[in-house]
Design a protein that fits this description.
alpha/beta, about 200 residues, 6-stranded parallel sheet
């Protein structure tokens, strides 16, 4: 089983939204069964999943620690686990990152987000995990978006898919769906398919 961890010291960057959308994209691409885990006390991902009527992706509570939970999920036949994390740096975040095959670090185009990147990267480097930045909630053709991507490249790899600030992402999440389900022919759905294709290549 492969494990993806969404991590960032900065809140509001879209970790929960990306976790949900990537899970749906992975299932659609045949990379399942996929299971979600939520380690954030705000439980945004858990609340979204509880609104869903669809049976996939799965959701697992953490029992006996994250490592033990992941081991049990792998044994049960899960192919991919996606772990959402809180916007804080702590020993628990370090332990979570250590379980990952790939750490995705969402960053919104803003000076504050860029300032928070270093501490997250330090944890990933210390854990010797592979990672990628995802420029999220972006405005295409914005100078700030371009500057953010350029700055991030100094710290590591940046996903080649720009995730734009689209209403479909928010609307889908409110309804317990994703952009792919809410507007399957929309641009957000295409972005998530492309982002998953990139993530899948990194995992392989």
């Amino acid at each position: 089983m492969k494990v993806i961890v969404l991590a960032s010291a900065k809140g509001g960057v879209g970790k929960s939204t990306l976790s949900a959308h990537l899970a749906i994209a992975a299932e659609a691409a045949g990379a399942g069964p996929v299971v979600l885990l939520d380690t954030d006390p705000q439980a945004s991902l858990s609340k979204w999943w509880n609104k869903r009527q669809a049976e996939t992706p799965g959701f697992a509570g953490i029992k006996g620690g994250l490592a033990a939970t992941l081991a049990g999920l792998a044994k049960s036949g899960m192919a991919l686990a996606i772990v959402d994390t809180p916007p804080a740096l702590s020993a628990s975040i370090e332990a979570t990152v250590a379980t990952a095959d790939l750490v995705l670090i969402p960053v919104t185009p803003s000076p504050i987000d860029l300032e928070a990147v270093g501490s997250t990267v330090s944890i990933v480097v210390a854990a010797k995990r592979q990672s990628a930045f995802v420029v999220n909630k972006a405005k295409r053709n914005s100078l700030l978006t371009a500057d953010t991507a350029d700055a991030l490249q100094r710290h590591g790899e940046v996903a080649p898919v720009l995730v734009e600030d689209r209403l479909d992402y928010r609307t889908g999440m409110i309804q317990g769906n994703t952009a792919q389900e809410y507007a399957p022919k929309g641009k957000a759905a295409v972005e998530m398919r492309d982002l998953w294709a990139y993530v899948a290549r990194r995992l392989s």
